[in-house]
Amino acid sequence: MIAMDENDISFFKDGLRLDGRRADELRPVKIEVGILARADGSCYIEMGGNKVIAAVYGPREVHPRHLQEVTRAIVRYRYNMASFSVEERKRPGPDRRSYELSKVSREALEPVILTSFFPRSVIDVFVEVLQADAGTRTAGINAAAVALADAGIPMKSMISSCAAGKVGDTIVLDPMKEEDNFGQADLPIAMTPNGDITLMQMDGNLTPDEFGQAVTMAMKGAKDIYELQRRALVAKYSQISTDSAREEVHLCE
Predict the structure, then answer these.
(1) CATH number of the domain located at residue range(s) 11-252 in this protein
(2) Where do the Exoribonuclease phosphorolytic domain residues begin and end (predicted)?
(3) pTM value?
(4) What is the mean pLDDT of residues 39-46?
(5) What is the rounded average pLDDT of the residues 79-106?
(6) Alpha helices, DSSP H, located in the chain
(7) What whole-number distance in Å separates Cα of residue 198 and Cα of residue 137?
(8) Burial of 123 (0-12, 13-18, 19+ CB in 10 A)
(9) DSSP structure class, residue 173
């Protein structure tokens, strides 16, 4: 395999990125709610080439019991990449990266979950990456937040996540795989609709001005994703209400 670096790739052509997007444009996003019948809440999301599924179980009893918290529920988040999710087959099972992403993703969601409502219990969040195309942590957080809402878990607000990056000395929104692999920096965030940031990480180097621009761009992307999350939830429960009304009419007849 030939080694490549950022100088070997032209990231822009005629002012557009390799996939035809502008610098401040998200990849296509698709969100489906409630796709798993046996989960308390679930969500399937596509962000560009990412395909991620999230499932929520609970609140339920904690096992083993010594893990119980007397005053609140504990939140467990498991991020996993399927061995077939990347081009070069990944060794099955958890690794150091999956442990790290599980931890930071849980910490991004936990501040908005009203855990005090469910003492001595656990809320389990499982995120499975079926196909990876850069930004799996942000896609997983977005799917997990919708799955929590679908499960009826009380939350202060929704959490939405997006990343900005630096490629070819330009700040771009929602980097794809080539931009992530050969770019100069990556900055994923998670935030509430009010702009309270619950996750911020950075890999690479940005000047103070570039950092400010990247944060502003990522926050705008997260707000756009929030609107898509909200619409997906409204669409599901509007359909349920419509179906219930039709059933009532049928019974009356």
Answers:
(1) 3.30.230.70
(2) 25-154, 158-221
(3) 0.90
(4) 98
(5) 88
(6) 96-109, 136-150, 177-182, 208-252
(7) 14
(8) buried
(9) E
Q: pLDDT tens, 158-208? A: 999 999 999 999 999 999 999 998 999 999 999 999 999 999 999 999 999
User: How far is the C-alpha of 45 from the C-alpha of 135, rounded, in Å?
Assistant: 12
CB atoms near residue 95 (< 10 Å): 12
Residue 1 above 60 pLDDT?
A: no
Average pLDDT, the chain: 91
Residue with the two structure tokens 């010594």: 66
Residues 6+ apart with CB under 8 A from 228: 29, 31
Is residue 173 within 8 A of residue 84, CB to CB? The reply is no
- Fill in the amino acid letter for 26: L
With tokens 């690794």, the residue in question is 95
The span from the CA of 141 to the CA of 149, in Å, is: 12
Domains in the chain: boundaries = 11-252
**In a 3-state reduction of DSSP, which class is residue 65?**
helix
Cα of 208 vs its chain's centroid, Å: 26
Q: For the residues of 16-27, what is the DSSP string, one character each?
A: EETTS--TT-PP
- Residue 24: what residue type? D
The whole-angstrom separation of Cα 27 and Cα 181 is 17
Rounded to whole angstroms, the Cα distance separating 137 from 189 reads 10
